[in-house]
Design brief:
With 104 residues, this protein is mostly helical. The protein has one domain: Arc Repressor Mutant, subunit A, CATH 1.10.10.1650. The protein has a two-stranded antiparallel ribbon. Helix 1 crosses helix 3 and helix 2 packs across helix 3.
């Protein structure tokens, strides 16, 4: 897809969520939401108070880094989830890194 160079666009596959030990692909978090919500829209509205957003996200990803993942990020994740669900894109097939491994 071609976009205007002035727009800041990130591919879904490039977005990751910080945890205390690593990063988790956004697609994995969205799939987790899909399972938790039984394929229905999010039970929490994106405009919910920050404490509720953090508590909800902790049920999805218990070790998320609360110092680097803000309620505003969680709002976006919920909005994206609802949008992708409405367009029947969920669950998302997650593929491994296509980079070939070198033989030793």
């Amino acid at each position: 897809m071609v976009t205007n160079p002035q727009l800041q666009v990130s591919a879904l596959a490039e977005i990751q969520i910080y945890t205390l030990t690593d990063v988790v692909p956004l697609a994995a978090v969205l799939n987790q939401m899909f399972e938790r919500e039984a394929g229905k829209p999010s039970s929490l509205q994106p405009k919910a108070p920050g404490e509720e957003l953090l508590a909800y996200f902790e049920t999805l990803l218990p070790d998320f880094d609360s110092e680097r993942v803000y309620p505003s990020h969680i709002k976006k994740v919920i909005q994206w989830y609802n949008l992708l669900l409405a367009h029947k894109v969920l669950p998302i097939a997650i593929t491994e890194d296509p980079t070939p491994q070198e033989d030793e």
